[in-house]
Structure formats: C-alpha cells, structure tokens
C-alpha cells in the first residue's frame, strides 16, 4: 500500500511537470525541431533568442507592464480595502461584491469590453491600454487579499498609533503597511505573475509594441523551433524566481 | 504630568440611541477615577470622547483648564490603554514603548532610554528586545501601560484593560496599576463593569447607567451611602426593607434597603421571624438566605459572622440596622 502511495505521488508529479521538463529539455536540442530523439545539448537557441531584439524588447515590455500594472492595482486595491474596512458606508457589501466581481468574468470578455471602450474613446491599442487591462484583472485580486488581511486587530493598532500622536501618513507607513507587509507582497507578486503570463488581453490591446506572450505567439505561427522552447524556458525561469522571492519574503515572514 | 478633567454637559447620540445624557463630572488632578456600569451604559463612549476618538453631540471636555473640542486625538494630552492591548506586532517592546516619543520627534538614544525606564517600571526591561507575540497576556498588558505612560500624558484612559485576564492575574494587575498610578501621579480614568475592581483601585467611582451618572463619589460613599437604587444594586447585594418595618414613610420615589452585612440577629429594625433556607461558608462570613414567616415570605440575604450561624430550617427573629434611603429607578 505504501509503495502504491509513492507511485501515485510520482505519477502526479510527472503529470504536472512532464510538459515543463520536455519544454526545457528540447530547448537544448541541437537539431532544428524540438521533437525526439534528443540530440544535444547546445545553448545556441538561447544565444539566438537573447540576440533577437524583438524578443528582448517584448521581454522588457512585459516586465514593465507587469511591474507597473501590479503596483497600480496594489495601490488602488489597498485604498479600496482600507476604505471599506474602516468606514461603514451604506451598501458597502454591494461595493465589495462589485469590486471582486471582475474575477469571475473571463479575460476574453474583459479584453473585448476594454477594446470597445478604448475604440470609442479614441485610444490606440498600446502597452498602456494593456497595462490598464491588467490593472482591471489584478485589482479585484489585490483588493480581496488586502481586505481579508485587515482585521480589528489592525484597526486597533492604528487607533493606538493615532492616540500616541502619529499623523495619518505616519500611521500608514509605520503601522498599517508594516502590519500588512505579507499581504502586500503576496498581492504584488501574484499580480506581477498574472500580468507576466497574460495573453488574451495583451493580444487584443497591443499593436506595435507587444508583450512577451504575444511575441511568442507570433513566433509560434512560423512553426515549432527549439528557439520557442528556449524562450519558454526563460519565461518559466522568471516565474520560478518570482516564486522563490515570494517564498523568501512573504512565507518566511509570516512564520515568525 | 497630571491635570484635572471637567466634563461639561456632555451628550452623545448614535442615531436615535442616546449613549450619553448630560454628563457633568469633575476629576481632580492625580485622581484614580473609575467609570463603572453595565455594558451599554455609555462608559466606553465617554472614554472615547475623552480621548478625542468621538466628537460629542453636545458639551465639552476640558483638560487642565483647556477646552479640548478643537484638539484632535493625536494632539491631546491623553493616551489610552486599550482592552486588546493594540501593540504593534512588528516592533520590539522597546520600539512599541518608544513609539509615542518617536512621534514627538525625540532622537533614538533618548527615546530608547525612556522606553527602558518605562519597561523597568512594569518589570519587563529584560524583554525589551522581544516582539509582542512572545509575551503572555499579562505581560502585553504591562507593555501597553508602559507605552501609554512613556509620553507622560496628563490623563491616562484605560478601556477595560484587565477584562481579558484571568481572575488572579487581574487582582495582581489591579494592585500594580494602583502602585504605578501613585508613582507617576497621572490622572487615570479607568472603565470597567467589575464592581470589585472599581472598589479595589478607585479614588473615585462614577456609577453609570443608561448614559447618565447615577452617583459619583469615593468607594465608601458609593457603597455605603449610594444615592440611587441602581448604584446601590450595582455595587453589591441589596435587601429591600418594607416601609412598614422601618416604621416611617421613605418619601415619594424612594425606598429603604440594607446591605447583607446590616441584616442579622440583632438590630434596630425588626424584620419579623424568618427561617434559614440556605447557608454557605465564605471564609470570613456565612452567607445566609432567610425567608420571613409572615408577609408572604420575603427573602433576605445576610452575612453573619463566623460562629453565629443558626441551624438550617431554624426560625429566628431577624433584624436590620442603618437602612439606606435610595432613589428608586425611574
């Protein structure tokens, strides 16, 4: 029985990670197609991808969009959560629901809606419109994470700080933000990852400057190549780095 | 530092609900004042108004001869010790205690020295570098006290600070609070619903009910010579004495009553023959329930001295002495 358990676990891990392993493995493929048999290894595809100016620019665009849109979503989500957690307003439950609702709408619908709105307003598709789209999808997430982390405990500590003479800004930077640090970091890094991976909104709302997933998609249209595996592996590497950062900052902190 | 406090015609409404109704009180500088009352009587509301967290609907708070109406919470000469401690979890005890001084722009060396001095006062100097989650409830409470006192407020507000502690620890903290208050001389305004706690620590007790002050005075006054039936009842057990037994009318809207220690086997007012229905031993006295034979069986609670206990079911003549005249509840 014990053996079966281990086998089952191994099978699950293979199921989850086999595609990634294959992707990474064939990025080192020496021939022109990323299919078995494996002959290699070589780093030439990485060299080619890193020398590809379009690809590198898309990577920089993706990073910029991810970081800026995550920061904006975090800020807006924080204000909304702080407001709704502190002040009792008529219909605050409804407002909370409306803020979280976009999470249930598919990215495709959101992208189509934004496209129509931007067209009507006369905004050309660009990295900015994509960034706005990513704020739209990440704001509910940031709000939900931060709102859940704000309790009476926090409210009382803020009141105590004010009682001891802290101004609103001092309360924010010396009490609220440090107490919410794990939630703030988690919301920020999750938003960065979601924006970094996001394709549909970026595809519909960019034109000349594109993000990495869109660039990879256009590369795929010209057929499979180990170069796509190489860029895929790089994207995977970035996600792993974010995950490790998250692990080191948020989860280790929350243990103490 | 210390200052006197005047509450002038304070009223506060939460929507339709009147939480405070025309409160007029004077606290002397350096007094240990306890606001005592059941939950919902307005005592916490009053404390929040003193601290500047609530603006009263009507009336003013004066501290040290100054009208506090235009002064925000952060600028008031008051600090608060909160019921749930409200310590900053991400700071060490030293930083917690030094926080108020930091807000007043004091340098690190100076505020750390003061923080250590305050931690020493509450007996936690050896834990100055710890974080709040490493402490027990009683220790956190002491840190909250040290933090509130570090800025040398003129008035310290204590919002049921001992409510979360177990009985033994609570008694111990009451004594410590009293000692520390004597040492620093700050005016303390302490809110509680525990009458024993109030008696143990207060120089002056204000008994509150339904947003009004029923009686304010020393613990002796409030216990022995209460003004109203409500405050008499709240301060301890009470026996109603029928007017017929006292022999004279109590007057319109007033009643006679006596504490259990003033009911006994001798006294100047006869309550008639009564049967002992139940007795329990309390160490320094017997707590006895009597039921009178006549008058359709009125019950009395008496605290009899050790050795003076009649047999159970025995019928004896019962007496009361020095009854209080109380204003009945409206």
Characterize the structure shown.
The complex is a heterodimer of chains A (256) and B (330). Chain A has helices at residues 2-26, 44-51, 53-86, 92-100, 107-121, 127-149, 152-163, 168-179, 181-197, 200-205, 212-221, 226-255. Chain A is an all-alpha fold. In chain A, helix 1 (2-26) packs across helix 12, helix 3 (53-86) packs antiparallel against helix 9 (181-197) and helix 6 (127-149) runs antiparallel to helix 9 (181-197). Chain A is globular. Chain A starts with a helix and ends with a helix. Chain B has two domains: 5-233, P-loop containing nucleotide triphosphate hydrolases (Rossmann fold, 3-Layer(aba) Sandwich); 239-327, OB fold (Dihydrolipoamide Acetyltransferase, E2P) (Beta Barrel), CATH 2.40.50. Chain B is 27% helix and 32% strand. Chain B has helices at 43-51, 93-103, 108-121, 137-150, 167-184, 195-201, 219-224, 229-235, 243-246; strands at 5-14, 17-27, 32-36, 58-63, 66-67, 78-81, 155-159, 187-192, 204-209, 212-217, 239-241, 254-258, 263-264, 269-281, 286-292, 299-304, 315-320, 324-327. Chain B has a six-stranded mixed β-sheet, with helices on both faces. A five-stranded antiparallel β-sheet of chain B has the order 13-17-14-15-16, with no helix packed on it. In chain B, strand 1 (5-14) and strand 2 form a beta hairpin. Chain B is elongated. The A-B interface holds A 152-153, 156-157, 159-167, 170, 174-175, 178-179, 181, 256 and B 51, 53, 73-75, 78-80, 82, 84, 86-90, 99-100, 103-104, 131, 147-148, 151.
Break the fold down into its secondary structure elements and pairings.
The complex is a heterodimer of chains A (256) and B (330).
Chain A (H helix, E strand, L loop, with lengths): L1 H25 L17 H8 L1 H34 L5 H9 L6 H15 L5 H23 L2 H12 L4 H12 L1 H17 L2 H6 L6 H10 L4 H30 L1
Chain B lengths: L4 E10 L2 E11 L4 E5 L6 H9 L6 E6 L2 E2 L10 E4 L11 H11 L4 H14 L15 H14 L4 E5 L7 H18 L2 E6 L2 H7 L2 E6 L2 E6 L1 H6 L4 H7 L3 E3 L1 H4 L7 E5 L4 E2 L4 E13 L4 E7 L6 E6 L10 E6 L3 E4 L3
Parallel strand pairs in B: 3-8, 3-9, 6-7, 7-8
Antiparallel strand pairs in B: 1-2, 1-4, 4-5, 9-10, 11-12, 12-18, 13-17, 14-15, 14-17, 15-16
Helix pairs in contact in B: 2-3, 2-4, 3-4
């Amino acid at each position: 029985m014990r053996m079966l358990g281990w086998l089952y676990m191994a099978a699950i891990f293979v199921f989850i990670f086999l595609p990634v392993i294959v992707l990474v493995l064939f990025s080192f493929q020496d021939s022109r197609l990323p299919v078995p048999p494996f002959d290699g290894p070589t780093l030439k595809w990485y060299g080619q991808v890193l020398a590809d100016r379009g690809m590198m620019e898309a990577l920089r665009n993706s990073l910029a969009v991810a970081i800026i849109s995550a920061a904006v979503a975090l800020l807006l989500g924080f204000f909304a959560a702080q407001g709704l957690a502190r002040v009792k307003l008529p219909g605050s439950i409804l407002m909370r629901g409306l803020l979280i609702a976009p999470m249930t709408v598919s990215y495709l619908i959101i992208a189509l809606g934004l496209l129509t709105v931007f067209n009507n307003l006369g905004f050309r598709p660009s990295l900015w419109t994509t960034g706005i789209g990513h704020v739209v999808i990440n704001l509910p997430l940031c709000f939900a994470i931060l709102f859940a982390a704000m309790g009476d405990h926090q409210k009382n500590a803020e009141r105590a700080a004010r009682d001891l003479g802290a101004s609103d800004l001092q309360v924010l930077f010396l009490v609220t933000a440090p107490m919410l640090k794990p939630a703030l970091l988690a919301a920020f890094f999750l938003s960065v990852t979601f924006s970094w991976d996001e394709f549909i909104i970026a595809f519909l709302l960019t034109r000349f400057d594109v993000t990495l997933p869109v660039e990879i998609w256009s590369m795929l249209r010209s057929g499979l190549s180990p170069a796509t595996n190489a860029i895929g592996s790089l994207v995977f590497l970035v996600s792993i780095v974010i995950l490790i950062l998250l692990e080191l900052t948020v989860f280790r902190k929350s243990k103490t | 530092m210390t200052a006197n406090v005047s509450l002038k015609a304070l009223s506060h409404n939460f929507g339709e609900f009147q939480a405070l109704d025309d409160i007029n009180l004077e606290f002397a500088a350096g007094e240990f004042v306890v606001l005592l009352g059941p939950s919902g009587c307005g005592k916490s509301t009053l404390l929040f108004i003193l601290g500047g967290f609530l603006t009263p609907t009507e009336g003013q708070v004066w501290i040290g001869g100054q009208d506090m109406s235009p002064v925000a919470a952060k600028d008031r000469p008051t600090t608060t010790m909160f019921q749930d401690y409200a310590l900053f979890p991400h700071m060490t005890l030293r930083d917690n205690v030094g926080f108020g001084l930091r807000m007043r722009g004091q340098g690190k060396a100076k505020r750390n020295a003061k923080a250590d001095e305050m931690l020493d006062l509450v007996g936690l100097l050896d834990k100055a570098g710890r974080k709040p989650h490493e402490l027990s409830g009683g220790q956190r409470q002491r840190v909250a006290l040290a933090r509130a006192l570090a800025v040398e407020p003129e008035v310290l507000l204590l919002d049921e600070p001992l409510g979360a502690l177990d009985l033994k620890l609570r008694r111990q903290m009451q004594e410590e609070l009293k000692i520390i208050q004597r040492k620093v001389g700050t005016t303390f305004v302490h809110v509680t619903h525990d009458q024993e706690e109030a008696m143990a620590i207060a120089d002056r007790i204000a008994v509150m009910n339904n947003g009004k002050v029923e009686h304010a005075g020393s613990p002796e006054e409030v216990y022995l010579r209460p003004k109203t039936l409500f405050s008499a009842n709240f301060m301890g057990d009470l026996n109603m004495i029928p007017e017929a037994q006292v022999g004279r009318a109590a007057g319109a809207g007033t009643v006679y009553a006596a504490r259990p220690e003033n009911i006994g086997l001798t006294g100047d007012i006869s309550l008639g023959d009564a049967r002992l229905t139940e007795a329990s031993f309390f160490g320094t006295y017997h707590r006895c329930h009597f039921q009178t034979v006549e008058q359709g069986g009125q019950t009395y609670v008496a605290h009899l001295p050790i050795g003076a206990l009649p047999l159970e079911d025995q019928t004896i003549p019962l007496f009361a002495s020095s009854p209080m005249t109380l204003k009945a509840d409206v």
